[in-house]
Amino acid sequence: MITGKNFIGNVLSATGLKTFKTFNPKENIENEYVFVEASKSEIEVAVSLANEAFKEYREISGNKKSAFLNEIANQILKLDDALIEIYCKESGLTKERAISERGRTIFQLKSFANLVKEGSWVKAIIETADVERKPIPKVDLRKMLIPLGPIVVFGASNFPLAYSTAGGDTAAALAAGCPVIVKSHPMHAGTGELVAKAIIKAAEITGMPNGVFSNLNSSGIEVGTILVKHPQIKAVGFTGSVQGGRALFNLASQRPEPIPVFAEMGSVNPVILLPKALQNSYEEWSDMYADSVTLGSGQFCTNPGLMIGIKSPELNNFIEVLAKKIAKREPTCMLHPTIYKSFETKKEAASVQKGVDVVTKDSNNNVQNFGRPSVLTVDGEQFLKNPNLHHEVFGPFTLIVQCENENQLEEIISKLEGQLTGTIISNSDEVLKFKKIVDALKNRVGRIIFNGVPTGVEVCEAMQHGGPYPASTDSRFTAVGTLSIIRWVRPISFQNWPNNLLPDALKNENPLNISRSINGEISNKKINS
Ligand code: NAP
Question: Which residues lie closer than 8 Å to 38 by C-beta, 6 or more apart?
Answer without folding.
Answer: 6, 8, 16, 46, 216, 217, 218, 223
